Amino acid sequence: MDIRQPDVGCTVDCQQENYETPSQSSALFPPEDAQGNSKSDALLWECRTFSARIAEAIDEHRLFLAILLGYIVCGLLLVNQVVDLSTQAFILKIYHSVYFPMLLCMLALFLGWKGLRFAAKGSPGRLFPSLWKDLRRDHITSKRIIHGLIPLLGLPFFLATYTIFKSQIPSVQPFSWDITLSQWDYMLHAERYPWEWLNPVLAHQWITLAVNILYNAWLFVSYLVLFWQIFSLNNRETRRRFLLSFLTLWIILGSAGALFFSSAGPCYFDQVAQATGPYSPLMNYLYNVNQSLPLWALSSQEYLWNAYTNDRISLGSGISAMPSIHVAAATLYALLGWSYNRLLGWSLTIYAIIIMVGSVHLGWHYAVDGYVAAIATVLIWHLFGWYNKHHPLPRS
Questions:
Q1: Closest of 261, 242, 219, 275 to residue 366, by C-alpha
Q2: pTM above 0.90, yes or no
Q3: pLDDT at 338 over 60
């Protein structure tokens, strides 16, 4: 069949950045020339590319699948003695109830963004035909869908396993590092606690509320970046580097590191240390602000503590301070942003700094939790940069 070739200049540019050109992508719908032929030709065109795309996707994700499946199997084997199968299935169901609605939300945002771009370029009467043609040509392709389905379907099982494992950390290794981490904070910050340095600037109720809003937006930003990379084929090696780093930081930092440095965080310091600690003034300030403005950090902290004291596993349950997954993930997003352009890099770097500062100001973390998480994430990112260099992906 005569499949039309893209512009030569576009082909060169796309090949340099591993872009998925129409001729490379194998659209989910047959090309317009193929549609003019018989239905059997179109079906043959689909079948010939489908099996090749599946094999290519599995090969490209082999390390991702090995890490993901290895963690799920090991995690469930470790907790299977204390968490029954019905609870495990319940947690997985909860994650699916959040994960896929968030996917639909991100798709709606993407379509809205594309629609606005087309509306700004062309006449309103041609908006929907032009948008549909663009989606068919560049986005609804068999390669993009098949490559995206592997991480898309695997990550809910991964995150559910993480929650179950994290919830069991105190029963395996009771909180024992809080006093030490607090002392490290005090020594590293000129014999003052980090929140004491921050409060003269941040201890104003509207600033605290803004920090809380941005901190809570971490979940939305995480889903936005995650789904973008799951379905992005513009730079396949950067995508692979991000997905492998994402899994690894949750395993090494969020699971192994959290187990070794079992700690609850400043907001729970008095309960864990069983004494009035240096964070009481900070928490008193936050509760005073909460009387006039809603601070969701406090309700979230109460939710997690109730789940812990009642030995209940639910969405997002589990308490762990060191190292900070919030800071680690935000650092990873910043590193990803720099691999695309300076604007995205600076934007996500500023956001990572806000997450770091907010984790201290809202009583979630000791400052050293964030320092360790950020440094470890940079090392993990460079590890998979080395992996990409020595195991390059074949060109499509």
A1: 261
A2: no
A3: yes
